[in-house]
Amino acid sequence: MATIDFSKTLYALAPLAGFTDLPFRSVVKKFGVDLTVSEMISSNALVHQSKKTYRMVEKSPLEDLYSIQLAGSDQEVMRKAVEYVNTLDDVSVIDLNCGCPAPKIVNNLQGSSLLTDLDKMGETIRTIKKHSLKPYTSVKIRIGFNEKNPIEIAKICEDNGADFIAVHGRTRAGRYKAPVDYDAIRDIKKAVSIPVIANGDIDSPEKAKWVLEHTGADGIMIGRAAVGRPWIFHQIKEGMEEVSPALIKAVVLEHFDQMIEHYENYGAIMFRKNLHSYSKAGFQGASAFRNLVNRMEDPKEMREVIEEFFSQDYISRPH
């Protein structure tokens, strides 16, 4: 099983509900991301043997550093969820979600609401660490719930057995809109001895370089900026400014084909949201294209339309 080399910068794909499924992760993996993370997995759903949830933890053979992210705070349920993950091959990390701001998660003392009960958060980390047979236990955190207390949160993670943490530099109250506090990530890095991965609004090679230098973090985690731009990790690692229309077309078609293989015909409907993102790369007639695919359900018809749309050259360079 692959081990994490923190002596060099780690590039990680953040978990995003509804986006970072197996087809998307396998596409991103080809562009040099080191660590991929499942969508957030409900520990309750896993323990209750939800077939949909079982499918959500499946991995691509390409994913040689793969993390499964669990949400929950009931210790018995979490233990059983961890024991199920133990049966899965080639999983390197079990990650605890302490960052999701969604009300339905927060109202059940899961996700970012664990930041309001640090004793419970610490207990949950210990439960994962105690029962996991995987090499690493990690935690995805924000820097507070309503108010910022980043160092206190990070030290709870460290003291209860986390091997590394990923820090989204906003509070729960800040959702995805507030400015990212990179100073708080820098302060965490100085305060703990475990590796720290920086997360939040990293959307270009220049921003990635600045965040790494400013925070001193051991890696960066990118989520929303990779949707519609799965090649962003290659751009960052290679310092590449632009990608060709031909590359975009090839990536979109491969992603589409993987969606159909994984979800069968329903994958075409699910892929609409991805096409919305991909079409923003600077092609003519993007709005009309989005309106067209919104009404499509037939995979063969959709693939033909994708081929035609992405065969054109840019009218403006993508950002």
UniProtKB/TrEMBL annotation:
Q: Which cofactor does it need?
A: FMN
Pfam families referenced in this protein's UniProt entry, alphabetically: Dus
> What InterPro entries does the record point to?
Aldolase_TIM (IPR013785), DUS-like_FMN-bd (IPR035587), DUS_fam (IPR001269), tRNA-dHydroUridine_Synthase_C (IPR024036), tRNA_hU_synthase_CS (IPR018517)
Q: Does the keyword tRNA processing apply?
A: yes
- Ribonucleoprotein is among the record's keywords: no
User: Which chemical reaction does it catalyze?
Assistant: a 5,6-dihydrouridine in tRNA + NADP(+) = a uridine in tRNA + NADPH + H(+); a 5,6-dihydrouridine in tRNA + NAD(+) = a uridine in tRNA + NADH + H(+)
Output the PROSITE patterns linked to this UniProt entry.
UPF0034 (PS01136)
**Enzyme Commission number(s) from the entry:** 1.3.1.-
- Ranges for the DUS-like FMN-binding domain? 13-308
CDD domains of this UniProt entry? DUS_like_FMN (cd02801)
Keywords annotated in UniProt: Flavoprotein, FMN, NADP, Oxidoreductase, RNA-binding, tRNA processing, tRNA-binding
Function statement: Catalyzes the synthesis of 5,6-dihydrouridine (D), a modified base found in the D-loop of most tRNAs, via the reduction of the C5-C6 double bond in target uridines.
User: Which PANTHER family does the annotation name?
Assistant: TRNA-DIHYDROURIDINE(47) SYNTHASE [NAD(P)(+)]-LIKE
Q: Which family does it belong to?
A: Belongs to the dus family.
Q: What is the name listed in the Swiss-Prot or TrEMBL entry for this protein?
A: tRNA-dihydrouridine synthase
Source species, please?
A: Sulfurovum zhangzhouensis
Which taxonomic lineage is given here?
Answer: Bacteria, Pseudomonadati, Campylobacterota, Epsilonproteobacteria, Campylobacterales
